[in-house]
Batch of 3 targets.
Target 1
Amino acid sequence: MVLLWVILIPLAGGVFLGALGHRRWAFFANIAFSAATALAACVMTADVLRAGPLLALRQQFFIDPLNVFLVDLTALVGLTTSIFSRSYMRVEDRLGHLTQARLRAYHAMYQLFLFTMLLALTTNNIGVLWVAMEGATLSTALLVSLYRTPQGLAAAWKSIILCGVGIALALLGTILVYFAAHAVLGAGGALLWTRLEAVKARLDPAVMAVAFVFLVVGYGTKVGLVPLHNWLPDAHAEGPAPISALLSGLLLNVALYAIVRFKALASGTPDAHWPAALMMGFGLVSVLVATFSLGRQRDVKRLFAYSSIEHMGLATFAFGMGGPLANFAALLHMTVHSLTKSSIFFTSGHVAQKAGTRDTQRIAGVMDSSPAAGWAFLLGGLAILGMPPFGVFASEFLILTAAVHDAPWSVPLLILALGVAFATIFQATQGMVFGASPGPRGSRDLALAPSFVHLALVLALGLYIPHALAAWYAAAARLAGR
Amino acid sequence: MPLFAQIINLLAALFLLTAFAMLSQRRLANLINLYAWQGLILTLGIAVAAYGTRSIHLYVSALVNGVLKVVAIPMLLRRLVRRLDVQWDRESLVRIPTMMLIGLALVVFAFNASLPIADFAHTADHETVGIALASVLLSLLTMILRTTAVSQVIGFLALENGLIFAATSVTYGMPMVIEFGIALDVIVGIFILGVVFFHIRSQFDSLDLHHMEGHGE
């Protein structure tokens, strides 16, 4: 039953913060709700470690190795982001960028956004998963247009329409899966992951083929797979920094999680190779297009948004290859990318707020004006580029190893993309971190503590993966299929 | 073929007809009327399926869809159009006869694509799957070729109608909880879009999406 608390706490938080209106302590209440969620996730994890996979509320909710670490990751990043959000949004408030009503909407939507993501992860019902993803789209749109600037509204519009259409296609895919399963399972249980998983070899391959195309295109829009990625850089750039961190670190993972589960279903029959090919194609195109778009970005948040597309593409490609090694690598990559990228969005948001601009050419001397921000930026940049000993190095290395074995033709392309990404992002971050600062030296503050916590975790994962986590990854890799 | 399945077939044909009509209609008031008609055809289709299968849950679904798509959403849209004072969509990128030809090609494609599904369908009637898929694609085309925010949203709502029609014709409806979830998302989405419309208008002085381009890059 503790599983239900993980979902109910953010829901209650959203309703509470929305109903009460903005108060001075709302920043703190936001942290408190996120911390309670994280605590519930910890208790839930302890249960899973002791008793194995869980089912709750007449099989409507479940936890297995594939979603347990994602729930933990979501709860953890939700907590650290709320801590960062307190200092960031208080400055925004002081600068007069936001009214009381907007802050109220912000905090309510923050919790509801977490709620929709946790619901999507823990539900056993593919219909509820769809409803939760649509809810996440709607709450994103409100958060992205928080500042009500023309750019913000354009970004929100793009995100509603593009993701809306994507999600609608995913609904069509869901209907078709239900249709295929209906013939095997009857009306009861034809939407439940656990039941579908058991009969996946008996689902009609022709129907599953059509369904999976719609599902990849649909949820792929939310993952930011090229050519459906157009909403993502705008949404990341225009929303407040904590929201960019949540979008990049969590929402993309949740959407990818949905695709991975459906892939396991669709490749249930022994001769179904096309789900793998489809995901590998989408993934590789995303990696290439995103890396070659990096060079044209002058907005620091757009730069890292394109980097998110690249990394999600890489994970999608790895899941497409399938097999124990590639799946393991992709799951690790989801985890470390999420931690690193949210850390980078904290730092870049903080830096852009101090500098008053997001233009990479006009930000300079971060190390000079604030050593903490400089180090966080430098290390975050190195970590996301896959420098050892950070965790991203380990996951990218494993993905490349799997690619050499399973899809050797893709290796030159991947290495080219990683090289281009390295050159572009390294140059951009060096330009911002070093040099003389135009402004006065900032005072020391703790705003970036969450950034360093994330980087420390990524470093730790690069050096040593705890036994329990490795066991989950291995079990999840088996679930994700070949 | 039982009588109720023949009636659903007829309604499916009418449904496709409204999708085509929406493709060619540029006056917003007429577009909203067409949307309401489409909603009515959808509701009748679900009700007939409910009668044919004696399913209470489909009756409830017909009621929800009827209230939402024939009454509530068209009313909201009409009020929105009145308060925003927009009446016509701009001249679209592609001329209407060309749009119709593209639409025809899409219908042929949809029928071909739905063949494996139709072979497998265990419901009374097979052709409706192709029709539902065709109207989904036509609504997508409407969204792509329209340039004002309001008509894009109507295209989006028509897309959702097509999906519900697909669900009804393929599986006789999704489970109740899911249908309520979908309805809730649609209604919340409409409200959010309404709010965004007003802000877009006050920021750009227009609902023409061409004005919004260049702000993202």
Note: Chain B touches chain A through 43 residues (CB under 8 Å).
Target 2
Amino acid sequence: MKVGILSGKGGTGKTTVSASLAAVVPSCQYIDCDVEEPNGAIFLKPELKEKSPVKVLVPEIDMTKCNFCGLCAKACQFNAIAVVKDKVLVFPEICHHCGACKIACPNDAILEVERTIGVVEANEDGTFLQGKLDVGEPISIPIINELKKHIKEDRFVILDCPPGASCAVVNSIEGCDYCVLIAEPTPFGLHDIKIAVQLVKNMGIPFGVVLNKASNDNRSIHHFCQSEGIEILMAIPFSKEIAEGYSKGILPVEINDLWNEKFKKLYEKIEGGAHK
Amino acid sequence: MKQIVFISGKGGTGKSTLVSSLSLLVQNKMLADCDVEAPNLHILLQGEILKKRDFFGAKEAVIDSSACIKCGLCRKTCRFDAISEEFEIKPMKCEGCGACTLVCPQNAIKLEEVKTGETYVSNTSRGTFSHALLDIGAEGSGRLVTEVRKNVNAYKKDEEWLLIDGSPGIGCVVIASITGTDAVVVVSEPTKSGQSDLERVLGVAKHFGVPAFVCINKYNLNLKVTSEIEEYCENNGYPVIGKIPFEPSIVKALQEFKTPIEAGNKVITNEIKNLWARLVDEVENLKKA
């Protein structure tokens, strides 16, 4: 089964929860879909053996055939091609690799060439995967899609998602059997968890909440979950020990056996929640 | 007007807390929140919305089923798996590229503009504030960010500064937030994740030629990583303009919708004042250079 870990707000503990699950669930697969800022490897310390570039198709103009009619530029919805007098300018970074320009060209003057925008890296048996968007590149979706091609369907698969609530998150959790939403009890955390809840509801994926940095002073997430009928799967209290461990790249499950047991319970709840 | 954008690479390092604190200290400025997916600045600013507009930031294919002969050319052409076997568009998958419209022999497919979010301009006690909210799961978050920045121009008077709260990451949203600004301040934290993310996001600022400065937030959580970050910044020419300590009282103040400034935390208030003074100097120096 496939589980997406998301949060809306950044820095709530997606990677802590994802990597802790990966550490306690036997023979699972961990995939870091936060390709802009992947952090799972810092905690899971895999030996990365496989590295394959992620390539997309972008247009290249055959100037011997181009008659500067401008139909390619008109077809491009992303302003990635401009035709000025006797020049054709291609802006490959903002190209969405759709191929519309090639279809629109009446002179067969557009070919598509490969362009690398990032990399997918894996350990030897493919149980750890991460994607990395090249610095300066805007479009991350092709890397997320490439990562998802390597999903091992017979395993428990953990997809550590990017923050936010845009198409990158949608692509990451699409096809997931269950989602875990990580919330922190602050006014910001409450605001953003509502966005994440709406996203998974829209996509029809069953889900539960993990409350991170929980404190008795603020029960806003409890109240919200209660009123919405959302299950709180686990609460991780704010602890200096966990925060210090995190800063060094050490997971709670490595600090204390208690957390080992708690994350195993979380795993059981996820399995149960997905099969409801 | 000088535009300063606060980004972080990693989420949750304290961008919005810092920007809302500065909104109390800096005079004669406007504010913008370019984190359109999970905006938070409005929660602390609590302004009154002057203008609200729907934003149409993407297109989507629409199939006229009465004209469709189900030939399958569109499905074959679409690279985003956005057309179902029943020849219906899957809205969450469609990129709005229009490739399908070009191959349909029946001209049965059109591109239509879709609403991808809402933009707001608000009046707050701390200045005019431009912000937005992306529709959940929508495309085109970068375009919405660009719109937020355009709205600033429409409302600016003679403000000296624009403080922009950015988003996590290094992709389209961050690029749309930083291009053409006068300086980037990266709010970092002394964790292994924060360190790795800081280095990547500084790379983006460099790539687009925007001068970058670093603030280490919660610096006392791990002094070793803090000094590693300082060393990296020193070696790569990124001035560290502030180090803010972690104090549980900041979290408590936030619970009550208060910045550390309003909560009366003197140490942190001073540190943020110094950070701003340093930044103003650095931006002045850039102008001279």
Note: Residues 257-274 of chain A form the longest helix (18 residues).
Target 3
Amino acid sequence: MKETNEFQHIGKETPYLAPAGFFETFPEKTLQKAINREQHRRKNSIRRLILSAAACLAFLLYLGIHFIQDSAPYSAPSLADNEALPAGKSTIVENHEPIKHMTDVRTKSAQSAKLEGKNLASKDKTEELNDVLSDLNDEELQLIAALYKTDPFINESLQ
Amino acid sequence: MTGTDDASIVAMLKDPAQKDKGFILLMNLYKEPIYWHIRRLVVSHEDAEDILQETFIKVYRHSGSFRGDSKIFTWLYRISTNECSYHLKKRKNVIKRTGQINGEVSGELSGNDMENSKEILVKFQLAIQELPRKQKIVFNLRYYDELSYEEISKVMGSSISSLKTNYHLASEKIKKYLIDHV
């Protein structure tokens, strides 16, 4: 302790003072604050746990929905389906464009046929039917004609 | 700072049924030396009170993980010194930003606390406040708290030779300050 005596003329006193009663009230005040902080910390950790569990659940649900949506519109043909077909006729189609086009035409013609049926039921609406038919192109008209020939409900001669 | 008291306090802190009682005992035993250690470093009473409270709250929270490898007062000094270091760094940044140079410290020292104090004590404290952070902490722990270099090494995590150098540099700077200002 020799080196700490080099300021002997100053001593160990300091010019600082603590407010009266500070040390008496300090332990109780600090204990209360420590208990409150601990309770708050526990509550927060429970809240964090619940939130993270909810976030995980939401994420899993999202993943589930996402995968269901992805797989629902497209069902890949199984190997068994391909084997059941005659050789060279596979259900796996490389180019989807023609199918899409055909579907569109069929949908249009089916709609117009429906419309046509409704219009036939009412003689007053003959003009409307003519208007609809005039809107259709040749290809669509041919399809309707083909349907008319093969459909036993429309073509009376087939009944 | 008796070893047996420390052992029983640590045992109480680890027992949930006696934790609060042990905590009060610990505070009654160490609140004053730790308060004065903090006060000498940060000067303001309000800051010292906040840091002292924070120190004991940390002890309360982590008392279960205290392994007893070191003495409990070394642990308390380490926590409070770290808190002071953090506070001093923050204050240094504020002073840098606002351009104040020790005015805050001088103001504290020449306030009401100073009415009955000798001028030399104020000069001595101003000289200590002029020191770099590490030298200030080493000087205070050695000069006022009379800790050995081994104990200071545990508190600060520095080597003994570096602490001795820091103490020597600090005392030289203080002597020079006193010659220039008294």
Note: The mean pLDDT of chain A is 74.
